[in-house]
Amino acid sequence: MVVNIERLFSKRAKKLRASEIRELLKITQIPNMISFAGGLPNPHAFPVEIIHECIEKTFKKDIRNALQYGTTEGLASLRGALAERMKKKKQINCELYDLLITSGSQQALSLVAICLLDPGDTYLTSVPAYLGAIQAFSAYEANCESIPMNEEGIDIDSLRRNIERLRRTGIQPKFIYTVPTFQNPSGETMSLGHRKELLNIASEYDFLIVEDDPYGELYFEGGPIPPIKSFDTKGRVIYTSTFSKILAPGFRLGWVVASKEILEKLILAKQAADLCTNVFSQYVAYEYVHGGYLDKQVEQIRCIYKKKRDIMLKTIKKYFPKEVKWTMPHGGMFIWITLPKRIDTRFMFQKAIAKKVAYVVGDAFYPDGLNFNSMRLNFSYSDDDTIREGIQRLAEVIKEELTISYDEEPFVAEGV
Q: Which region, left, alpha or beta, applies to residue 292 given φ > 0 means left and ψ of -120 to 50 means alpha?
């Protein structure tokens, strides 16, 4: 080992930080720990038997090609099937040549960062924001401008004010990142009007929209809301989605729909990163989509997750103190909890761990690290009785914390 290895790391590598959620997943290994921290699909929702059938079909049809290198763009048959589904289910007008298969949608975000962000560039995001996106963009030394959310999703008035403020200082944002449907971490959904208005603003001020849509099909009430990309006629929206929530995350398969000019750059960046996405997984996923299994499976997932959401909300309402507020998501996997401002959920976290219950602290979802009185809870992973027990444990922690006053000597959480 080199004596002083630190001197060899790049400036970028020295700035890299571990994902708080990835670190929190280690907590799930503690015996009797109830974790609402990870954004994990429920393993009982995985279509194990169907996957087995799809693997057998792959072996019978074309196993030698499935075990070979593939193109960077991805398996043509899978891209074609996804493009057809995008047109049918999402009203996104695309062909297979408009689509790139990635190693999960997280790689898509990283490729976007590689191709669009230089050190010191600025991007926009609504907050709270998906931690994985913040991590991907900050790895390329970009500056983030946070835009608050309101009951319709992103606060459009605040967005305009911030863009005008940036323009006065000579700063032109490259893009805005958003999860408009059942957002991670808040569970909130952007209204149809705000989606159209966001696209108009992007056109007016000439920046791109990175639309992340991992949860759009997991709606519990009503029907699907058209993605922003479905209104895009000029190639201004980069749309990403994933099989992680509608098949299984272990496949590590996602995709991007973008204009030809953008897709060409993303493909070049991907070539340098991994040559191609897991080919065997792509063949199996094609059989899954082509075989007509996907729609039936998504319906089952919706039923499972709706029940779990309802159980968590009912238990929260029963046991949480009246001072606590929470979102009521109509789909997805998360509930956002807001406590009185004097409560620091990062400080309270250790007390929750002592009670054998875990969550994600709210400030992790803010690029500036602010917002200390919130938390994200995942309802998709745990079984029903565990949800009830975990929420009761968490309610006890919150009630105890509310009885403590830090007015005389404000507490500053370590590392914040």
A: left
Residue closest to 187 by CA, chosen among 334, 326, 360: 334
Return the higher-pLDDT residue of 35 and 410.
35
pLDDT digits 0-9 by tens, 31-59: 899 999 989 999 999 999 999 999 999 99
Contact criterion met (CB below 8 Å) for 349 and 384? no
pTM here? 0.94
For 262-315, what is each residue's pLDDT tens digit? Answer: 999 999 999 999 999 999 999 999 999 999 999 999 999 999 999 999 999 999
Which DSSP category does 128 fall into?
A: S
pLDDT of 105 strictly over 50? yes
List C-alpha distances in Å: 356 to 34, 101, 351.
Answer: 6, 39, 9
Cα–Cα dist 395/248, whole Å:
32
* CATH class entry, domain 5-46+296-401: alpha beta
Domain boundaries, the chain: 5-46+296-401, 49-294
Q: What is the separation of C-alpha 281 from the centre of its chain, rounded to a whole number of angstroms? A: 21
Q: How far apart are CA 358 and CA 366, in angstroms?
A: 19
Strands, E assignment, 362-403 = 374-378
The residue assigned the tokens 């995008």 is 86
What is the per-residue DSSP string for 188-231? ----HHHHHHHHHHHHHHT-EEEEE-SSTT-BSSS-PPPPGGGG
| Distance separating alpha carbons of residues 214 and 187, to the nearest angstrom | 12
Radius of gyration in angstroms for the set of CA atoms belonging to the chain, rounded to a whole number: 22
DSSP E strands in 44-192: the ranges are 99-102, 122-127, 143-150, 153-154, 175-178
pLDDT greater than 60 at residue 222 = yes
Q: Which of 7-11, 12-16, 346-350 has the highest mean pLDDT?
A: 346-350
DSSP string, 28-80: GGSTT-EE--S-PPPGGGS-HHHHHHHHHHHHHHHHHHHTS---SS--HHHHH
Distance CA 20, CA 360 (A): 8
Which helix or strand (DSSP H or E) is residue 105 part of?
helix 104-116
State pLDDT tens for residues 337-366: 999 999 999 999 999 999 999 999 999 999
CATH number of 49-294: 3.40.640.10
The tokens for 218 are: 């997991």
Alpha-helical runs (H) found in 206-327: 260-274, 279-290, 293-319
